[in-house]
Amino acid sequence: MPKTQETVLEIDLSALKHNFEYLKSKLQENTKFLAVVKAFAYGNDADEIALFLQNLDVDYFAVAYTGEGVALRDAGITKPILVLHPLPIGFSSIIDRCLEPSIYNEKVLNRFMQIASDKNQKDYPIHLKFNTGLNRLGFSENEVESIYSKLNSSNAVRIESIFSHLAASEDLSEKEFMLHQINSFKNISEKFKTLFGYQPMLHMCNTSGILNYPDAHFDMVRSGIGLYGFGNSEKENKNFRPIASLKSVISQIHDIDEGETVGYNRAYKSASSMKTATIPIGHADGIGRPYGNEKGYVIISGKKAPIVGNVCMDMIMVNITGIDCHEGDEVIVFDASNTADELAHSANTISYELISAISQRVKRIIKK
User: Where along this sequence does the record place binding of substrate (predicted)?
Assistant: First the structure.
């Protein structure tokens, strides 16, 4: 592609296809695949990515909130969409747009059943979330009987799936706890089968669960970060291709004398003569303040240029001393070679946070 002349996020759909096919290769033929496209598909472009994956025959999609699911329906997504953290205020919209809610406590279950009944629904699909150790959302194992009693009194809803979430599937030192979670989930599923006389679809594994716990794939797996190019380990990262490249340009170059300061609060003081470049991207675009003061960096002419001073809302300044570059030259914030994972580690965070924070004001370019 031609060199960029502005700040852009390039999204490579061929890399997305590669990641999807790699993850699918880990599954049994009849195991369903759920693509997690919440948070604008982890900061990319939810509409384009979901439409592309729908054409690749993904079985399910998942979002966090009801509005995200509505937006996917408006974009033309017809496959089932699981809403992972619905709130009661959105239940009518969920039913109106044929979304499928995760039900995670008694209050939410009662409210959704009431609204489904008021809308004359029969066997509306719901998904029951169980807490097996993450301690975030979900019913406990000892609530299975009370759930059965409630659902047995109404035909407004039916259980499409029961699911849980692994707390540390990427960390093999936590394998004992992961196996404890998996066994707990199996116990829950057996209780359901005994009480209800059938077993709903089961799913528990996220990206690292797919890779590290093949015996827990059950009926469906869920992948988010893997689709976008990260395997949560140095070994697995080699099997994925990051789909996004965040690029910008040099707006201006400054000669800085020894003792001069750079940026807000005079946070950086030059120890010697140097050159800096100003780049039109800042914390309003997703490059947070923790990347400032020589923690983070960009790539210019193939070399690292550390961020100097505090990150501004719309700009960063970088040290280009010794780098052959000019105003208007392209800047790589991250791409497939200089990954978001590596940049995130420089600020003591994770790729998830960095990529999902990329502002919607950054222009998206889809490489088909």
Answer: 136, 313
